[in-house]
Amino acid sequence: MSAGRPRILLIGCDGQVGWELQRTMATLGEVIAASLCGHYGLVLDLLDRDAVISTIQRERPDFIINAAAHTAVDKAESEAELSGRLNAEAPELLGSLSAELGVTLIHYSTDFVFAGDADKPYREEDLAGPLSVYGQTKLEGEQRLLATGANAFIFRTSWVYGNHGHNFMHTMLRLFKDRDRLRVVDDQIGAPTWSRMIAEATAQIVNQLRLTPSDAEYLRGIYHLTAGGETSWCGFARRIAEFSGEACRIDPIPTRDYPTPARRPACSVLDNTKLNRTFGLQLPDWKVSLEQCLADRKN
Ligand SMILES: NC(=O)c1ccc[n+]([C@@H]2O[C@H](COP(=O)([O-])OP(=O)(O)OC[C@H]3O[C@@H](n4cnc5c(N)ncnc54)[C@H](OP(=O)(O)O)[C@@H]3O)[C@@H](O)[C@H]2O)c1
What's 11's DSSP letter? Predict the structure, then answer.
């Protein structure tokens, strides 16, 4: 590894998490930002195996961070092949290359790998049981990546929102402008997690691994990385309205009244103890982050 400032290949730098990572990682090392459009550095399509191989061989990064994925949960039901190529095959390829070249790989996964019928927050070793194509392909991605033997860190996060990209918070803010009453699902429980908090936690972990590279070999694996606390989509929507000063009435509805192509877990809260014990990290409560995110939006 280069002394001091590592070379960090950031794939998917234009997504919610990738966008925040561009900024936080720049304080740690030399970021080689790659996206489909190439606006921030390199053009890189994860579906193009040859391009992935030649980019990694040419750039010789110390770390690869993969923030790209097929994240359209409902669309994935009718795009299973594409979802599988991006969420399962691509992480495996990145893992193989990382193992071969001695690169430390950071990858993200999701609470949707779980069925959502547990009576307490899920731990990393709990049995997965995805209900959707998205959840299934993300789970396959975890398994295929770990099987490569790479020094890989997989951070399962949940309900991601932020000021850059498409997400539930933006949808609510747009709807508040047109409607004075909304009906939002109240029987799915999770932890809304600000993309910036994910990026900042990732940066702290990369920094620890940079300072003690030998840690990567025995700390590799899956970690849960979500905001503290929990809520429903309805609870989330109500806080978005409150913190943004919108006077919209938000009524709770059950999932059966809002049918979607993909099934979602009823309760997919993740237990972050392993992250805390291993890296000393604890993300703030989701309400604290949401308030900051909305304040940041106004500035
Ligand atoms: N969003 C959530 O609620 C959520 C929840 C739990 C876990 N996660 C996980 O967290 C990670 C980051 O999610 P996110 O919310 O930041 O996702 P996102 O905003 O949807 O960003 C994903 C990025 O991947 C890019 N991408 C798509 N196809 C690509 C390809 N063939 N080659 C290269 N890049 C490609 C997209 O580019 P275009 O926009 O140009 O297509 C986009 O910039 C993912 O692993 C996701 O599964 C997300």
Answer: E
